[in-house]
Every structure is written in structure tokens, then in C-alpha cells.
């Protein structure tokens, strides 16, 4: 019995020792019994006292709040040091306490309060009431923060993104809190807005494609095409950051909370008056605003723009880039060709404000007029000659020379030569002018052959003797008499019996206006003369010989 009671007593004694003696590495309660030399002396029970620097009782940037008699929790690192004092830490106690609290908040996805107190690589340090957390630079605000000075030491809520007690890591975000409150604010503002409302806002940001306008906690996008009825190259032409503007709510997307705004919708649409103001075929002054490969845009008035298609830019410059004809900001006269109110399109013409140069040429240069110009181009079918009004006329191969083949005659011309020609035809519709160089001195053949008919006897001059016949000339026209046509007597059909310069009477057998040749024959003349003599002086069956008849005819001529 005594043994039992001794054992019980020992167990109770050990239990009391365990209860009264704090365990090293745990958080214990203590009482401040004195404050001296910047330290607080704390009694942690079981006749153990320890010292803690006063700064451990202060929040970052604040004075320590501690007084004698205060009960505080401290972390017991060691029960006794060399001086016989307990080694205690308020900071470590706060950390342990904070970790417990933070882990619970992280599990419940609750916000925690803290203060930014330092700057480190990639972000900032935050005191979360004892535990130090890392705030990445990207998580400070919704937009990049250039100066975090005003945020230092300020108590504010944070969201825990990640924590690892074993490694002592905590990552927090201030941005998540802002986004959440912003979303609530947005929802509230958007709830009050309706499409078609006119509201005031402040320009917060300007980009190439538009401007973001703050409508009191929510941003709306004012696209560059909705700023004005006229063409706007960059939003900064119209708006500046910080400016207060009146806008209309065009569209609200309830899912994405995106708001589209417009300024031009609050102004009168100039297109309402276009048809009345710009009748078809009327001419107006405009300003070139944009040049593309297919034409140029011309502003008739702010908000009303028309396209001059490349085909309507010039009468003469056909395959040229519009930028070679007009330049941006240039003032031009244009004619209204077509208006499409539904598509808000005006088709304009530049060349229609000038007279058709082919029409002008036809009026000032009737057929037969002599012109002079530079050889602009030489092709396989003729010459192109520059004419007044920046137009070209063409001399076909067949109109180059009376005497030479066109292929040979064209070899006499070079690009840049100044030549004379006669207008033979002007086709305004096809924009074509036909010229003739060979017609310059008139039609020599027609003039020479005017009095010559088939059967006429003419006198020609021998200009050349060849094996096949002789070449002769009649009033500047060359002809060739073949050997067989030199005489009716075969023995006399010899070209060598003629000499250059001889005058010979010949009969015209053919006048070919197309090939511009006279068919000539001595043989035909002799036969014709014989026939005439027979008719006059006898008949072939009267018994008289041909010699007698010709003799009589010649004798008659002599008399």
C-alpha cells in the first residue's frame, strides 16, 4: 500500500514538473517584470527569466508598445544560458503564432493584413504580423508601379498565393485584392449603364487603335473609327490623356464586361446630306487623304470621303501608281460619278474634270493636218509619236513610205527622232490616232497617175538595164518592163538594145492604185499601132501585105 502511494506521488510530482517546466522550442506565456537598457525582462515561470530587445515588440516603422506588467507570448529557445537566464524571443513567437493564423487563412482563402516594409530583388517584403512574406513586383498593382514609396508601411489586405512552412516561404498578392474589388466596382458601374447612354469620362490611355476612357471605375474603349466621321490617322490628333470627354455607350458585353464607346455618334452624320450636297457629275474641291495601289481617297468634307479609282485618275497615264499622279494632302478637283448611301461610298473621277485630250486633238487637228512630234516608241507594227496633250499617235508600217517596204523603212527611225506626219484618222472612243509619214508630200502616184488610163501611150525614160528587162521612170514613178514586153518581135526582146536615158513610148496596160504600180509594155503599143493601121488602111484579108499597110501608114504620117 505504501509502495503504491509512493509511486502515485512520484507520478504526480513528475506531472507537476512537466506542467510547470516549459518545453524548449515552444511558445510560452510570460510577464514583463522590468524594462531596462532597451530590453524587456520577462518572467516565463518556474523561476526562469529572459531578456528580449524592445524592437521585437514593434511593428515595422512603429514604436514598441510594451509596459511592465504586460503578459506576452515568447518563444523559449533554451531554458538556461551561460548567465543562467532563459533564451527567449518575441519575434519567433510572433512568427509561430502568425504561421498558425496564416495557414488557417490560406486554407479558408481569406485575406490577411500586412505592411510592405522592404525592397528585395524582384519585389518586396511584407510583414504579416510576425511572418515575412514575398510580394512579387508583378503582384503589387493591376498596372506596373514605377514608385512603390507611398505603399511602404501602409497596413493593407493581401491574398496568400503560396506558402511552405518547412521552407519558411510565403508569397502574397496585392493585385488579386485590387482586381477583385475592381471587378465588383465594374459590375456595379456596368449595371447602371445601358447601350445608347451618353456619359462623361476621362481619357486614361491612348493607343494606335483608340483610347481607353475611365467612366468612374470602369474603362471603355473608344475605337479610332468611332472618334469622328472623318478619317483619323492617330487618336492623339483628337484626344490627350487626362482630358474629359463626352461619349456614347455603343455596346456592353455582359460576359467580358467590355464597353465600346463612340464620340462621332453624338455629332450629326454628314452622310445624311451627301446626296443633296454632291449631285452626280458635279465638280468639287477635295483633299487627298490616303493613296493605295488601286486609287486615292479624297475628302470632300470632314467625314465624307470618296475614292478616285486608278482608272479614273488620268486620260493618258494608264498603268501608273496613283502616287505618281497625286500626293497626300494635295487639293484636287474631282467629279462625283456615283453615290452609294447604304455602303457610304462615293466614286469620284479626277480625269473627268479635264477635257478628253483625244476630243481636243480631234477638234484642233482635223484629218490631213500636219503634225510634228518625238518618236516615243518603235514596235514591230509601227512608230508611236508624242503629240500635244500627252497623247501618242501611231504611224503604221504601211504608212511610212511609198517606195520602201514598211519593215525596211522603219529601220530609218530611232527613238527620240523628231518627225513630221499627217493626221489620217482620230478615233476618240478608242483613244487612237493614226498618222502617215508617206502622205506628207501628198500622193505622188495618184497625182502622176491622174491623167493616165489603161491604154494610154506615155513616154518614159530608161533608168536601168537588167537581164529580165528595163527599169523606167514616169514623172518620178518607177516601173519595170519585162523582157517579153520589150517588142512583139522576139528577136528584138533584148534589154541591151536600150541605153540609160533613152526616151521610149510605151502603152499603159494596168494602173494598180493598191500596189502603186503602172503596168507598161512596148509590145502592147506596137500591137495597138498595127491594129489601128489595119483598121485605117485595109483589112488583113484584102491581099495587101502588112509591109504595104504599114508603109502606107507611115507615108501618110510623113505627109
From TrEMBL:
Gene Ontology BP terms: translation
Family annotation (CDD domains): S1_RPS1_repeat_ec1_hs1, S1_RPS1_repeat_ec2_hs2, S1_RPS1_repeat_ec3, S1_RPS1_repeat_ec6
Name under which the protein is recorded: 30S ribosomal protein S1
Homology family: Belongs to the bacterial ribosomal protein bS1 family.
Highest taxon above the source species: Bacteria
Matching InterPro entries: NA-bd_OB-fold (IPR012340), Ribos_protein_bS1-like (IPR050437), Ribosomal_bS1 (IPR000110), Ribosomal_protein_S1-like (IPR035104), S1_domain (IPR003029)
Cellular component GO terms held in the UniProt record: cytosolic small ribosomal subunit
Keywords for this protein: Repeat, Ribonucleoprotein, Ribosomal protein, RNA-binding
Key word RNA-binding present: yes
Function: Binds mRNA; thus facilitating recognition of the initiation point. It is needed to translate mRNA with a short Shine-Dalgarno (SD) purine-rich sequence.
